[in-house]
Structures are given as structure tokens and as C-alpha cells.
Amino acid sequence: MLVATLADVARRAGVSTATVSRIINNSPKPVADALRERVLAAVAELDYVPNANAQQLARADRTAVGVIVHDVSDPYFAEITRGLQRVATEHGRLVIICNSYRDPERELAYVDLLHAHRTAAVVLTGSGYIDPATTARLDHKLRLFEATGGRVAVIGRHEHAGDAIVPENEHGGWLAGDALYRLGHTSIGVIAGPAHLTTTADRLTGLHRAAHDHGHNLTTRHIEYAGFDRNGGHAAAAILLNRNPGLTAIAALNDSMAVGALALLRERGLEVPAQISLIGFDDMPISVDVTPPLSTVRLPLEEIGARAMSLALREDGTDPQVEHVAAHLVLRASTAPPR
Amino acid sequence: MLVATLADVARRAGVSTATVSRIINNSPKPVADALRERVLAAVAELDYVPNANAQQLARADRTAVGVIVHDVSDPYFAEITRGLQRVATEHGRLVIICNSYRDPERELAYVDLLHAHRTAAVVLTGSGYIDPATTARLDHKLRLFEATGGRVAVIGRHEHAGDAIVPENEHGGWLAGDALYRLGHTSIGVIAGPAHLTTTADRLTGLHRAAHDHGHNLTTRHIEYAGFDRNGGHAAAAILLNRNPGLTAIAALNDSMAVGALALLRERGLEVPAQISLIGFDDMPISVDVTPPLSTVRLPLEEIGARAMSLALREDGTDPQVEHVAAHLVLRASTAPPR
DNA sequence: GCCTGCCAGGAAAGCGCTTACCTAAGGGGA
DNA sequence: TCCCCTTAGGTAAGCGCTTTCCTGGCAGGC
Predict the structure, then answer these.
(1) What is d(CA A243, CA A273) in angstroms, rounded to the nearest whole number?
(2) Number of H helices and number of E strands within chain A?
(3) How far apart are CA A252 and CA A191, in angstroms?
(4) B280 and B198 share one domain
(5) pLDDT at A286
(6) Cα(A272)–Cα(B331) distance, integer angstroms
(7) What pLDDT sits at residue A267?
(8) The CATH number of the domain where B23 resides is what?
(9) B207: domain range?
(10) What total number of domains does chain A contain?
(11) pLDDT at residue A1 is higher than 60
């Protein structure tokens, strides 16, 4: 039960703790080879593992990086997280992943927690909340964290602390809408994400703009809000279909929901895209494996994660940076002109 | 840049650090309300956030839990991780997720790192390595960690430290094989995972046993090893098909590979299951969304994660426990008798 | 009115490290 | 030969907390 400490190692090797510390951290200070070996032997014999908390405290340096995501098991975040991790690992950083499960309070609590642990940076991924009070509190906490020497990077959010990676959600929404209108669709249903998320709002804005550009109008009866997952898409598609008999196309604000919608369409015996077109968003891996493969708006998720981490980890003290990431239309087989 | 410390708060409130500490941790020791308010006000004014490293050091308690997975962005681990996280959160624990990317050295390094951070527990998920040297080193490190008061839980591995959740991989393999033979298939190709992983070996053993039980034999020409992902399955299916013209069924050792195989089969114009049957493993979410929906062997991934975390977090000092998790056959539309 | 007992609050000793500073010994130059 | 400089290694002062133990003041009992 008892853990070997630096002092134990020093005692065993017959040297001072300073020497042991220097050897372990191979500090530039030269140490006689004989001593070094004695110490290393003692370390091995005692199975000594330094106490990282004590090290952090004494050194006052920041090593780990905290990442707050809505839910790692969601493929969207899984992709981003992979990019995040890759770059962090390249920099030799440990990543602490925290799932907020889209709960603003939990998100706030995690920021405090990462702050308390004096992580080098916190990366906040995924949609923010439209509620201004929450945003303000979060902003405040982030600034505080920065003020104490931590770095902040946000992905696809409207908070204005630290670096930011901003995917072109609005333009992406426009791309999806434009593609559909261009094909000749006029009655389009939209499966939106949760109404209180900025990502939902941004993508929807793009869709509205596309409608307007084509001389159409997206009314509330053509929009259904749902959870950003398969089940949400499934349920919303059913509602949309019941409410709008003439629907010839559905735009889902992410691919998971599109997959859910696709399942419902199949259940209803509707041919995609012959009878109804479907377009997703994000270009998640699954979109090529469903039948038909999904047309979608591609966001380079892994790259977004990687860039965010690069920003968060850069050493130069330059000002906060904002990088935009372009969305691209990916046409596959789920869209076609209405018949 | 300067962080407020306990001492700053104490000074500002005109009390000792002891009092502040007691108030902040609301220790049982009673404190006059007036003082408490003064201190809380000072905390708010200074935006004080306790230094978690110092707290850990002083308290010598263990709070966070470390989780080592192969890759969180892999749906298999994403599911498990979700269960892990859920339970950890219920216990108010912070989870540190580490991706080993199937590199034994990295895995070893992470165990050290979590040990160094004095996490309350480390949970090791996913297949272990067949190489005995690696296993022994890992075993040693885990035991060491336990000896210093940490808990260990492993999921689906053969290391023998701490608690263990063992999914019935072998029986699952048998179920898949048995189902196929029972349908009348005799020439079955197997898409296996990486050869050095125990999970691959275990599932394969079950398949061999099923073959044997039905009076057949699985030869090396019917087995192709690949990466546990979609691309691996795609490539392996091609090889298998070329090598065995008479193949009437393919068993993939996980669903991701099965999805890859399905894509290849479609490319080759082979109807599933009319011309060739396909069965997966794990029952990942995607398996219901491909066409045809995949027959597979279900492992309750989220539950496995949850149970592992429960074991790792239990307070009673009981002996290490081993819990087995049953695999179940899920027949969907990708399997049928050979024609 | 004095002594005892209780209680709120403070002083200080760590927790396990790192590191600035100091010491002692050895080597080289004059 | 003597002195000074270099250098390997040690001493000890923190890092920011927690917690044990102690103190001083007050109320109550005799």
C-alpha cells in the first residue's frame, strides 16, 4: 500500500533527493555515471513512479490538455476527438476528455475542473448554447482560465475567448438547400437539431437563405427540431411527412439524423431518391455505407480537431486566432430531381 | 497571469488559510456564518479556483479514473466508453481517456502515467496482446499500481490483475460459426482481426470449434487477417473471394469489417444474402443501417463499460472479481441458406 | 467570583517534488 | 606552492493545499 517516494530512492542510493530528481528528469546538470547508475538501480528496485501531482505543484508547469465534448461516442465528436488526440500525442501531451452530454451546467463545471487541474489548454468542441446567460458565464470562466496562463480553443462556437476554429455551418446549410432547390425541389422538409444549439441555428440560417435565394420560403411547418442522433432523425422524419404530404426532399442537419430519416423512409416504402430526396450534413463515415449512399455537406472533422489542437498548443504568444473551415457539397445517390 | 491562492483569499477575508480551506471543502468543523460569508465573498471577488494538484498532494486521495482504450473514435470503444463514463459520472469521478492506438508501448506508458497521477483506478479496455513479454510487463505495472492503492479493471483481456469483465468472445465466435453451418454453409471465409490480439484469437477459436462440431474444418486459406476496421474488412473480403471461388458465406470478427466486406460484395455485384451470406460481430449501431441489416453476435458494449466502471469504483475491499458477459446471436437479413 | 469545559479559529507541520543557492574538493596557472 | 575557478553534489526553501494540535475566550456550575 505504501508508495516509494523520491526520498526513499535517495536513501537507498545513498544520495540526496536533489540528485535523484536531476537524474530522473535528466536535467542539464551533469551527474557522475556511477551515481546515475546507482540511482537508476534504486528506482528500478523500488518500482518508483514519481507523483505527478507533486511534480506539477513544484514545477508549476502545465502539461495535460482538457477537451470538453458533447459526447465522444457520437461519431461527429469521435472524428474531431481523433484529430485532437493525434496532434496532442505528437506534442507529447496527455488529453483529458470530458463529456458534457450537452448539459451547459456540466460544461461549466468541467471548465472549472480543468482549470483546477491547471491543464495547459482547454478545447471546447461542438455547438454552444443560444442562451446568453450561459454563454456569458462560460465566457467569463474561459477568460479567467486564460488569465491564469491557460490556453483556450473553441470549435464551432460563438464564445469569444481564445482561439477558434469555425466551420462554415451557415454556408454548409446554404449548400444543402441550394443543391435541393437547384434540383427542382420546392417542398423541402428540414430535420433540425436541438433548437437551443448554435450549430442548429447556423445551419438553419443557411437553409433559409438558400430558400430565399431561390424565391422560396422555409416555414415552421417544414422544420422539425430533434435530437442530433439517429432516433431524432427517425422521429422527425415521420412528423414532417405527416405534416407535409407533398414533401419531395428532406434536409437533415447532420448525417446521424439523415440515417434515421432514411430508415423511416424505407419503413414507409418510399424510394430514395426516386420518390423523395435526402441530404445530410457532416459527411460522417456511415454516410457511404447506407443505401443509397448519402448526399451530404462535408466538414473535415478530423482536420478540424487537429487544427484546434495545434492552435491550443502553439508556443508563440500570438493573439487569439480564428480559422475558418470550409464546407463542401458531396453529392452521392440520395438526391435527385423530384419526379 | 497570476493565480489567486488560498493564502490570497485568507488575507483578503482576514482569516487564516485553515479557515478558508475548511469553508471551501465544507468540512464538518463549524464556522461562524459571518466568517463564512466573508470568505465566500473573497473567493468570488478573486475568482479563486483551488489548485487540484496541491489538493491531491495534501489529501493523498485519489479522484480521477483513467481509461485506456485502443481508439475512442472506433464505435466499439465509443460504446464501451459511454458506459464507462456514465457510471463514473454517477460517482462524481473525472475520467481521463487515453488512446493507445493499439500500440503496446503506448499502453504501457499510459499505465505509468495514470499511476503517476495517482488515479483512483485504471480501466484497460479492449483486446490484449498475444505476446507474452508485453503481457508480463503490463501485468507487473498493473500489480504495482494496485499495490499502491489503485484499482484495476480490465475488459476482455487476459491480464490477471484486478477486476475483469470478460465478454464471451469464444462462445460468440462459436455462435456465428454455428449459425452459418446450421444454415447449410460449408465453405465459409473468415475475416479476422489483427493476429496479435487476443480478441481475434478467442473469436477464431470459437469459429474453429463450431466448424469441428459440424464436422468441418477451417483452414488457413479460409481465414484472412486484417485491421479491425471497415477498410480491413473490405480488403480481406476481396482476398478471401479471390482465394476461395466457392465461398457461400463470410464471417467477420467485428461489424466494422463486416460493413467493409458488404461494400466489397456490392462492388462485385454479389447479392447478400442470396448469393453469399455475411455475419458480423458486436452488434454495433451501424449494423441495422446497412442494407441488408447485418446478422451479428451481440455484445452489450455500453453495459460492459458500465459494469467495468462499477467494479473499478466499488468501495468495499473485496477480492478481485471476474464477471462474464454473454454473447447473443442476432439474426437479421444478411444470412440465408446457400442456394 | 473562580474554575472547568467547550468551541471557533489559528499556527504550523507536512504531502512529494524542484531548484536556487551553497559547499567542498579537485585542477590548473602563475 | 598557493590561489582561484570550476564543478559535482547537497541543503533547504518553497509550490498550494489539508489537518492536527493548540490557543484564547466565553459560558456555566459551584
Answers:
(1) 20
(2) 12, 12
(3) 5
(4) yes
(5) 94
(6) 26
(7) 95
(8) 1.10.260.40
(9) 169-299
(10) 3
(11) no
CB-based contacts of A270: which residues, under 8 Å, 6+ apart?
Answer: A276
CB B218 within 8 A of CB B181: no
Closest CA to A326 of A303, A309, A294, A306: A303
Q: What average pLDDT score do residues A258-283 get?
A: 97
CATH of the domain at B213: 3.40.50.2300
pLDDT of residue B190: 98
Distance from CA of A212 to the nearest CA of B (A): 34
Q: Are residues A163 and A193 in the same domain?
A: no
Tell me if B331 is assigned to some domain: no
- Closest CA to the C1' of C8: that residue is B31
Same domain? For A273 and A310 the reply is no
A52 in any annotated domain: yes
Question: pLDDT tens-digit profile of B54-86?
Answer: 999 999 888 889 999 998 888 899 899 989 989
Segment B232-273, tens digit of pLDDT: 999 999 999 999 999 999 999 999 999 999 999 999 999 999
Label residue B1 by pLDDT band (50, 70, 90).
low
Strand D contact with B25 (CB < 7 A): yes
Interface test with A, best of B1, B81, B113, B289 (most A CBs within 10 A): B289
Residue A116 belongs to a domain: yes
User: Are A290 and B289 within 8 A, CB to CB?
Assistant: yes
Q: Is residue A337 part of a domain?
A: no
One domain, residues B69 and B134: yes
Tell me if B72 and A96 make a contact (CB, 8 A cut-off): no
Distance B30 CA to D29 C1' (A): 25
Q: What is the pLDDT of residues B162-174, one digit of tens each?
A: 899 999 999 999 9
Verify that B78 and B227 share a domain, yes or no. Answer: no
Count of residues in chain B: 339
Q: Which of A197, A77, A93, A305 is nearest to B85 (CA)?
A: A77
Looking at CA atoms only, how far is residue A95 from chain B in angstroms?
7
What average pLDDT does chain A have? Answer: 93
Alpha-carbon span B325 to B330, nearest angstrom = 16
Are A112 and B149 within 8 A, CB to CB?
no
User: B218 with B310, same domain?
Assistant: no
